[in-house]
Amino acid sequence: MSSILKDSRGRSRFWIASFTDSLGRRLKRSTKTTDPELAKRIASEWDEAGKAARAGRLVESQCRKVLAEIYEKATGKPLHFRTTRSWLNGWLEEKKIGTSPRTLMKYQQIVREFLDHLGPRADAMLAEIVDDDLKSFRNSLARAGHSASTVNGTLKVLRSPFHLAHRKGYIAADPCVGVGLVDDDVDVERDVFTPEQVRALVAHAPSEDWRGAILCAYFSGLRLRDISELRWGMVDPGLTTLELVPAKTRRKKRNRKIVLPIHAQFAAWLKKQTRGIGRAPVFPTLAGKSGGGKSGLSMQFRRIMERAGIHGRILRQRNGEGRSQSSLSFHSLRHSFNTALADADVAQEVRMRLTGHSTMEMNTRYTHDQFAGLQRAIAKLPRI
User: Fold this and answer.
1) Does pLDDT of 186 surpass 50?
2) Category of 252 on φ-ψ map: left (φ > 0), alpha (ψ -120 to 50) or beta
3) pTM for the whole structure
Protein backbone atom coordinates (compact mmCIF):
# COMPACT_ATOMS: atom_id res chain seq x y z
CA MET A 1 0.00 0.00 0.00
CA SER A 2 1.44 3.36 -0.99
CA SER A 3 1.01 6.73 0.64
CA ILE A 4 2.49 10.23 0.62
CA LEU A 5 3.71 12.44 3.43
CA LYS A 6 5.55 15.69 4.04
CA ASP A 7 9.19 15.87 5.09
CA SER A 8 8.98 15.87 8.89
CA ARG A 9 12.17 17.95 9.16
CA GLY A 10 10.90 20.54 6.75
CA ARG A 11 14.01 20.37 4.56
CA SER A 12 12.08 19.66 1.33
CA ARG A 13 8.93 21.14 -0.12
CA PHE A 14 8.28 17.99 -2.18
CA TRP A 15 5.92 15.17 -1.19
CA ILE A 16 7.54 11.94 -0.03
CA ALA A 17 6.25 8.63 -1.40
CA SER A 18 6.05 5.63 0.89
CA PHE A 19 5.92 2.29 -0.95
CA THR A 20 7.18 -1.32 -0.95
CA ASP A 21 9.98 -2.14 -3.40
CA SER A 22 10.78 -5.34 -5.31
CA LEU A 23 12.58 -6.85 -2.28
CA GLY A 24 9.65 -6.20 0.07
CA ARG A 25 11.37 -3.27 1.79
CA ARG A 26 9.36 -0.26 2.85
CA LEU A 27 10.97 2.80 1.26
CA LYS A 28 10.48 6.53 1.32
CA ARG A 29 11.52 8.58 -1.72
CA SER A 30 10.96 12.13 -2.89
CA THR A 31 8.46 12.47 -5.72
CA LYS A 32 10.06 15.78 -6.78
CA THR A 33 6.63 17.38 -6.99
CA THR A 34 4.49 19.65 -4.78
CA ASP A 35 1.26 18.45 -6.42
CA PRO A 36 -0.37 15.97 -3.99
CA GLU A 37 -2.40 14.22 -6.71
CA LEU A 38 0.64 13.66 -8.89
CA ALA A 39 2.63 12.53 -5.85
CA LYS A 40 -0.05 9.94 -5.03
CA ARG A 41 0.05 8.66 -8.63
CA ILE A 42 3.84 8.36 -8.55
CA ALA A 43 3.75 6.53 -5.21
CA SER A 44 1.08 4.15 -6.53
CA GLU A 45 3.05 3.40 -9.71
CA TRP A 46 6.23 2.66 -7.73
CA ASP A 47 4.31 0.39 -5.43
CA GLU A 48 2.69 -1.47 -8.36
CA ALA A 49 6.06 -1.89 -10.05
CA GLY A 50 7.49 -3.35 -6.83
CA LYS A 51 4.57 -5.73 -6.51
CA ALA A 52 4.95 -6.90 -10.15
CA ALA A 53 8.68 -7.44 -9.63
CA ARG A 54 8.08 -9.53 -6.48
CA ALA A 55 5.63 -11.68 -8.44
CA GLY A 56 8.08 -12.05 -11.35
CA ARG A 57 5.82 -10.15 -13.72
CA LEU A 58 7.76 -6.92 -14.23
CA VAL A 59 9.12 -6.48 -17.75
CA GLU A 60 10.97 -3.66 -19.44
CA SER A 61 7.93 -2.49 -21.38
CA GLN A 62 5.99 -2.01 -18.14
CA CYS A 63 8.83 0.06 -16.67
CA ARG A 64 8.81 2.28 -19.74
CA LYS A 65 5.05 2.66 -19.47
CA VAL A 66 5.28 3.74 -15.82
CA LEU A 67 7.98 6.29 -16.57
CA ALA A 68 6.13 7.64 -19.59
CA GLU A 69 2.90 8.10 -17.62
CA ILE A 70 4.68 9.86 -14.75
CA TYR A 71 6.61 12.13 -17.15
CA GLU A 72 3.51 13.07 -19.13
CA LYS A 73 1.54 13.77 -15.95
CA ALA A 74 4.30 16.02 -14.66
CA THR A 75 5.14 17.91 -17.87
CA GLY A 76 2.08 17.55 -20.06
CA LYS A 77 4.32 16.16 -22.82
CA PRO A 78 4.66 12.53 -23.91
CA LEU A 79 7.95 10.75 -23.21
CA HIS A 80 9.23 8.94 -26.29
CA PHE A 81 11.34 5.82 -25.88
CA ARG A 82 13.49 5.22 -28.92
CA THR A 83 14.13 1.63 -29.84
CA THR A 84 16.72 0.80 -32.47
CA ARG A 85 13.98 -0.20 -34.90
CA SER A 86 11.91 2.95 -34.39
CA TRP A 87 14.95 5.22 -34.65
CA LEU A 88 16.31 3.65 -37.85
CA ASN A 89 12.88 3.53 -39.48
CA GLY A 90 12.34 7.17 -38.50
CA TRP A 91 15.69 8.02 -40.08
CA LEU A 92 14.58 6.30 -43.28
CA GLU A 93 11.38 8.37 -43.31
CA GLU A 94 13.45 11.55 -43.14
CA LYS A 95 15.68 10.28 -45.96
CA LYS A 96 12.66 10.05 -48.27
CA ILE A 97 13.04 13.80 -48.71
CA GLY A 98 15.91 14.71 -51.01
CA THR A 99 17.11 11.12 -51.59
CA SER A 100 16.83 9.39 -54.95
CA PRO A 101 14.59 6.28 -55.05
CA ARG A 102 17.57 4.07 -55.90
CA THR A 103 19.65 5.34 -52.95
CA LEU A 104 16.67 5.11 -50.60
CA MET A 105 16.15 1.49 -51.65
CA LYS A 106 19.79 0.80 -50.74
CA TYR A 107 19.37 2.44 -47.32
CA GLN A 108 16.21 0.45 -46.65
CA GLN A 109 17.92 -2.83 -47.48
CA ILE A 110 20.87 -2.05 -45.17
CA VAL A 111 18.60 -1.10 -42.27
CA ARG A 112 16.48 -4.21 -42.80
CA GLU A 113 19.53 -6.49 -42.78
CA PHE A 114 20.97 -4.82 -39.67
CA LEU A 115 17.68 -5.16 -37.77
CA ASP A 116 17.41 -8.81 -38.82
CA HIS A 117 20.96 -9.35 -37.55
CA LEU A 118 20.02 -7.87 -34.16
CA GLY A 119 17.01 -10.15 -33.81
CA PRO A 120 14.84 -9.39 -30.72
CA ARG A 121 17.35 -6.75 -29.61
CA ALA A 122 16.17 -4.55 -32.49
CA ASP A 123 13.20 -3.64 -30.29
CA ALA A 124 15.34 -2.84 -27.24
CA MET A 125 16.43 0.68 -26.40
CA LEU A 126 18.65 2.47 -28.91
CA ALA A 127 21.20 3.16 -26.16
CA GLU A 128 21.79 -0.60 -25.77
CA ILE A 129 23.49 -0.84 -29.18
CA VAL A 130 27.26 -1.01 -28.73
CA ASP A 131 30.25 -1.22 -31.05
CA ASP A 132 30.27 -5.02 -30.79
CA ASP A 133 26.88 -5.06 -32.55
CA LEU A 134 28.30 -3.14 -35.50
CA LYS A 135 31.45 -5.29 -35.57
CA SER A 136 29.37 -8.47 -35.46
CA PHE A 137 27.24 -7.24 -38.36
CA ARG A 138 30.34 -6.23 -40.32
CA ASN A 139 31.95 -9.64 -39.76
CA SER A 140 28.78 -11.49 -40.77
CA LEU A 141 28.72 -9.64 -44.09
CA ALA A 142 32.38 -10.44 -44.70
CA ARG A 143 31.86 -14.12 -43.83
CA ALA A 144 28.93 -14.24 -46.24
CA GLY A 145 31.35 -13.40 -49.03
CA HIS A 146 30.50 -9.76 -49.70
CA SER A 147 33.33 -7.65 -51.08
CA ALA A 148 35.22 -5.19 -48.91
CA SER A 149 33.67 -2.27 -50.79
CA THR A 150 30.16 -3.61 -50.11
CA VAL A 151 30.86 -4.19 -46.41
CA ASN A 152 32.51 -0.80 -45.97
CA GLY A 153 29.74 0.94 -47.87
CA THR A 154 27.17 -0.65 -45.55
CA LEU A 155 29.03 0.52 -42.45
CA LYS A 156 29.28 4.06 -43.81
CA VAL A 157 25.51 4.18 -44.31
CA LEU A 158 24.82 2.97 -40.75
CA ARG A 159 27.16 5.60 -39.32
CA SER A 160 24.80 8.37 -40.36
CA PRO A 161 21.77 7.54 -38.13
CA PHE A 162 23.95 6.63 -35.13
CA HIS A 163 26.03 9.80 -35.46
CA LEU A 164 22.77 11.77 -35.58
CA ALA A 165 21.39 10.03 -32.47
CA HIS A 166 24.60 10.86 -30.59
CA ARG A 167 24.55 14.52 -31.67
CA LYS A 168 20.95 14.86 -30.53
CA GLY A 169 21.82 13.35 -27.14
CA TYR A 170 19.60 10.27 -27.51
CA ILE A 171 22.60 8.00 -26.88
CA ALA A 172 25.59 8.75 -24.65
CA ALA A 173 28.14 7.06 -26.90
CA ASP A 174 28.27 6.55 -30.66
CA PRO A 175 28.55 2.77 -31.26
CA CYS A 176 30.17 3.32 -34.67
CA VAL A 177 33.29 4.89 -33.17
CA GLY A 178 36.13 2.39 -33.25
CA VAL A 179 34.42 0.05 -35.73
CA GLY A 180 37.05 -0.28 -38.45
CA LEU A 181 36.49 -0.89 -42.12
CA VAL A 182 37.44 -4.11 -43.89
CA ASP A 183 40.81 -4.16 -45.61
CA ASP A 184 40.61 -5.01 -49.29
CA ASP A 185 43.77 -6.92 -50.13
CA VAL A 186 42.55 -7.79 -53.63
CA ASP A 187 44.17 -6.48 -56.79
CA VAL A 188 41.43 -4.16 -58.05
CA GLU A 189 43.17 -3.04 -61.23
CA ARG A 190 40.55 -2.92 -63.94
CA ASP A 191 41.02 -3.91 -67.55
CA VAL A 192 39.61 -2.13 -70.60
CA PHE A 193 37.57 -3.29 -73.58
CA THR A 194 39.17 -3.26 -76.99
CA PRO A 195 37.19 -1.66 -79.85
CA GLU A 196 36.52 -5.18 -81.18
CA GLN A 197 35.06 -6.21 -77.83
CA VAL A 198 32.86 -3.10 -77.71
CA ARG A 199 31.51 -3.99 -81.17
CA ALA A 200 30.76 -7.50 -79.88
CA LEU A 201 28.96 -6.10 -76.84
CA VAL A 202 26.77 -3.88 -79.05
CA ALA A 203 26.05 -6.82 -81.38
CA HIS A 204 24.95 -9.09 -78.50
CA ALA A 205 22.97 -6.46 -76.57
CA PRO A 206 19.41 -7.75 -75.97
CA SER A 207 17.66 -4.43 -76.66
CA GLU A 208 18.00 -1.12 -78.46
CA ASP A 209 18.39 0.65 -75.09
CA TRP A 210 21.33 -1.54 -74.13
CA ARG A 211 22.98 -0.96 -77.52
CA GLY A 212 22.66 2.77 -77.03
CA ALA A 213 23.85 2.61 -73.42
CA ILE A 214 27.04 0.74 -74.40
CA LEU A 215 27.77 3.24 -77.18
CA CYS A 216 27.09 6.13 -74.81
CA ALA A 217 29.48 4.74 -72.18
CA TYR A 218 32.29 4.08 -74.64
CA PHE A 219 32.00 7.44 -76.38
CA SER A 220 31.32 9.64 -73.32
CA GLY A 221 32.87 7.87 -70.31
CA LEU A 222 29.66 8.30 -68.30
CA ARG A 223 28.91 5.92 -65.43
CA LEU A 224 26.09 3.38 -65.60
CA ARG A 225 23.86 5.34 -63.22
CA ASP A 226 24.24 8.58 -65.17
CA ILE A 227 23.45 6.78 -68.41
CA SER A 228 20.35 5.06 -67.02
CA GLU A 229 19.15 8.44 -65.70
CA LEU A 230 19.90 10.34 -68.91
CA ARG A 231 16.95 12.54 -70.01
CA TRP A 232 16.17 14.03 -73.41
CA GLY A 233 16.30 17.48 -71.84
CA MET A 234 20.05 16.89 -71.30
CA VAL A 235 20.58 16.32 -75.05
CA ASP A 236 20.71 19.42 -77.20
CA PRO A 237 18.36 19.46 -80.23
CA GLY A 238 21.24 19.28 -82.67
CA LEU A 239 22.57 16.10 -81.00
CA THR A 240 25.97 17.70 -80.48
CA THR A 241 26.28 17.91 -76.65
CA LEU A 242 25.14 16.27 -73.40
CA GLU A 243 24.72 18.58 -70.40
CA LEU A 244 24.28 17.01 -66.94
CA VAL A 245 25.33 16.94 -63.29
CA PRO A 246 26.80 13.47 -62.58
CA ALA A 247 25.21 11.54 -59.71
CA LYS A 248 28.56 11.17 -57.95
CA THR A 249 28.96 14.94 -57.98
CA ARG A 250 25.44 15.41 -56.59
CA ARG A 251 26.20 13.05 -53.69
CA LYS A 252 29.18 15.20 -52.75
CA LYS A 253 26.94 18.31 -52.75
CA ARG A 254 28.86 19.78 -55.67
CA ASN A 255 26.31 20.45 -58.40
CA ARG A 256 28.98 20.97 -61.05
CA LYS A 257 27.47 20.61 -64.49
CA ILE A 258 29.51 19.02 -67.27
CA VAL A 259 29.06 19.45 -71.01
CA LEU A 260 30.19 16.56 -73.22
CA PRO A 261 30.46 16.52 -77.01
CA ILE A 262 28.41 13.71 -78.56
CA HIS A 263 30.39 11.31 -80.76
CA ALA A 264 29.04 10.92 -84.30
CA GLN A 265 28.28 7.21 -83.85
CA PHE A 266 26.27 7.78 -80.68
CA ALA A 267 24.55 10.76 -82.35
CA ALA A 268 23.50 8.43 -85.18
CA TRP A 269 21.93 6.09 -82.63
CA LEU A 270 20.12 9.00 -80.93
CA LYS A 271 18.80 10.21 -84.30
CA LYS A 272 17.05 6.86 -84.85
CA GLN A 273 15.17 7.11 -81.54
CA THR A 274 11.85 8.84 -80.88
CA ARG A 275 12.88 12.03 -79.11
CA GLY A 276 11.13 12.66 -75.82
CA ILE A 277 10.47 15.96 -74.06
CA GLY A 278 12.17 17.27 -70.92
CA ARG A 279 12.57 14.51 -68.33
CA ALA A 280 11.60 11.69 -70.67
CA PRO A 281 14.35 9.03 -70.37
CA VAL A 282 16.69 8.41 -73.28
CA PHE A 283 16.87 4.73 -72.23
CA PRO A 284 13.32 4.04 -70.89
CA THR A 285 13.82 0.32 -70.20
CA LEU A 286 16.91 1.07 -68.07
CA ALA A 287 15.60 4.15 -66.25
CA GLY A 288 14.83 3.73 -62.56
CA LYS A 289 16.42 0.27 -62.39
CA SER A 290 18.83 -0.58 -59.58
CA GLY A 291 22.45 -1.15 -60.51
CA GLY A 292 22.99 -3.93 -57.98
CA GLY A 293 21.26 -7.22 -57.19
CA LYS A 294 20.67 -10.33 -59.25
CA SER A 295 18.32 -8.52 -61.64
CA GLY A 296 20.16 -5.20 -61.54
CA LEU A 297 21.76 -3.45 -64.48
CA SER A 298 25.29 -4.60 -63.59
CA MET A 299 24.26 -8.26 -63.74
CA GLN A 300 22.38 -7.66 -66.97
CA PHE A 301 25.58 -6.28 -68.49
CA ARG A 302 27.54 -9.26 -67.20
CA ARG A 303 25.14 -11.52 -69.11
CA ILE A 304 25.74 -9.43 -72.26
CA MET A 305 29.48 -10.02 -71.78
CA GLU A 306 28.88 -13.76 -71.50
CA ARG A 307 26.81 -13.80 -74.71
CA ALA A 308 29.60 -11.90 -76.45
CA GLY A 309 32.16 -14.40 -75.18
CA ILE A 310 34.06 -11.74 -73.21
CA HIS A 311 35.57 -12.68 -69.85
CA GLY A 312 37.78 -10.60 -67.61
CA ARG A 313 40.36 -11.69 -65.07
CA ILE A 314 38.84 -12.93 -61.81
CA LEU A 315 39.90 -10.49 -59.09
CA ARG A 316 37.93 -12.21 -56.32
CA GLN A 317 36.29 -15.63 -56.34
CA ARG A 318 32.66 -15.98 -55.30
CA ASN A 319 32.30 -16.81 -51.61
CA GLY A 320 28.98 -17.46 -49.89
CA GLU A 321 26.39 -14.78 -50.65
CA GLY A 322 28.93 -12.56 -52.39
CA ARG A 323 29.75 -12.70 -56.06
CA SER A 324 32.96 -13.03 -57.99
CA GLN A 325 34.63 -9.81 -59.04
CA SER A 326 35.85 -9.47 -62.62
CA SER A 327 38.40 -7.07 -64.06
CA LEU A 328 35.81 -6.20 -66.73
CA SER A 329 32.43 -4.61 -66.00
CA PHE A 330 30.26 -1.80 -67.34
CA HIS A 331 32.54 0.65 -65.49
CA SER A 332 35.41 -0.64 -67.64
CA LEU A 333 33.82 1.24 -70.54
CA ARG A 334 34.70 4.45 -68.67
CA HIS A 335 38.29 3.22 -68.36
CA SER A 336 38.19 2.30 -72.06
CA PHE A 337 37.03 5.80 -72.99
CA ASN A 338 39.87 7.47 -71.10
CA THR A 339 42.47 5.00 -72.37
CA ALA A 340 41.38 5.37 -76.01
CA LEU A 341 41.78 9.14 -75.68
CA ALA A 342 45.26 8.67 -74.19
CA ASP A 343 46.21 6.30 -77.05
CA ALA A 344 45.08 9.01 -79.47
CA ASP A 345 47.52 11.42 -77.77
CA VAL A 346 44.76 13.55 -76.22
CA ALA A 347 46.32 15.67 -73.47
CA GLN A 348 45.61 14.62 -69.89
CA GLU A 349 44.10 18.02 -69.05
CA VAL A 350 41.52 17.48 -71.79
CA ARG A 351 40.85 13.92 -70.64
CA MET A 352 40.29 15.19 -67.09
CA ARG A 353 37.71 17.71 -68.34
CA LEU A 354 35.87 15.01 -70.27
CA THR A 355 35.85 12.45 -67.44
CA GLY A 356 35.29 14.96 -64.65
CA HIS A 357 38.37 13.78 -62.76
CA SER A 358 39.59 16.43 -60.31
CA THR A 359 43.17 15.14 -60.01
CA MET A 360 45.80 13.84 -62.39
CA GLU A 361 46.34 10.89 -60.06
CA MET A 362 42.74 9.75 -60.48
CA ASN A 363 42.85 10.20 -64.23
CA THR A 364 46.07 8.19 -64.42
CA ARG A 365 44.31 5.29 -62.68
CA TYR A 366 41.82 5.30 -65.56
CA THR A 367 44.57 5.35 -68.20
CA HIS A 368 45.69 1.86 -69.18
CA ASP A 369 48.76 1.36 -71.35
CA GLN A 370 47.52 -0.49 -74.40
CA PHE A 371 50.01 -2.57 -76.41
CA ALA A 372 49.59 -0.35 -79.47
CA GLY A 373 50.58 2.64 -77.41
CA LEU A 374 53.62 0.82 -76.08
CA GLN A 375 54.62 -0.11 -79.64
CA ARG A 376 54.41 3.55 -80.70
CA ALA A 377 56.57 4.51 -77.72
CA ILE A 378 59.23 1.93 -78.63
CA ALA A 379 59.18 3.05 -82.25
CA LYS A 380 60.23 6.52 -81.16
CA LEU A 381 63.62 5.25 -79.91
CA PRO A 382 66.52 6.31 -82.18
CA ARG A 383 68.01 3.70 -84.48
CA ILE A 384 71.50 2.42 -83.63
Assistant:
1) no
2) alpha
3) 0.55
